[in-house]
Amino acid sequence: MQSGDSTPNQPTATLLVVDDEPAVRRVLSMRLQLSGYRVVCAEDGEQALELFASEQPDLVVLDVMMPKLDGFAVCRRLRAESAVPIVFLSSLDAIAEKVAGLDLGADDYLSKPFSPKELEARINRILGRVGRGTASQDPREPVAGLGVIRLGDLVVDTNRRQVSRGGERIALTYTEFSLLELLFREPGRVVPRAEILEQLWGYPPRRTADLRVVDVYVARLRGKLEPDPRNPELILTVRGTGYASQRLGELSAAGA
Description:
This protein is an alpha/beta fold. It has helices at residues 22-34, 45-55, 71-79, 95-103, 116-130, 174-185, 193-201, 212-225, 248-255, and strands spanning 14-18, 38-42, 59-63, 86-90, 108-111, 148-151, 154-157, 162-165, 168-170, 190-192, 235-238, 242-245.
């Protein structure tokens, strides 16, 4: 187990790096520690779950192809109990594999070989969005947001990053919540899929298949928030362009 130095007045985020290749673990550990992160490493899926329970990391970098438990199985286990950000690493570049990983609730997906600098940039972006601190904090330190928004019978608290319906909390991952916040920042505005990809994942679409990531997350969000995901009322599809949220006045009228 290795750790980096903390900076004054700023909590050190803990990263769990899970990969069965020693060279990958070594390179990522050194690079991320130099950037000020505390890094713990696991070489297989079972060890990853053990370290997650004991270390409570703020973000997990997770290889897909591993012995004992693969990355997809680990992601399912983590998502059953935590909204911790997860970044997948994989030698499988097929869009179907990428979609499968994101559909499990991962926040990002990098194909091997990848640039450690690019991974670091994506980690910085995710943690900059969700805030740094221990993963056991619930919620994390409040991030400046829009306040409380009522979407029909849903209550969205953007400062605490929580959504509830009828007093019962609906569990969203950090990326899912960020997508919801982006779409309702300007109710009724059509947000292009390319803009969503750049805002949430930090890179422009290099090919049409990249935009499938956005569709996967919209479908996940609808599945958690819409009474009938097949006939959405909150998040509308604008064919050939992107997505738009219902205007708040229209939502209030619909819920009356």
